[in-house]
Amino acid sequence: MLQLAEIFYSIQGEGTYTGTPCVFVRLAGCNLSCTFCDTDFSLRFIADVDDVVNRVRLEGRDCPMVVLTGGEPTAQVESSKLIETLIRDGRRIHIESNGTIAVDLSPEVWLTVSPKLRLNPRMAARANEAKLIVDGRVPYEWVDEFPQTTPIFLQPEGNKPKNIALAVDAIKALPKRLRLSLQTHKFIGVR
Question: Which of 28, 45, 52, 145 shows the smallest number of beta carbons within 10 Å?
Answer without folding.
Answer: 45
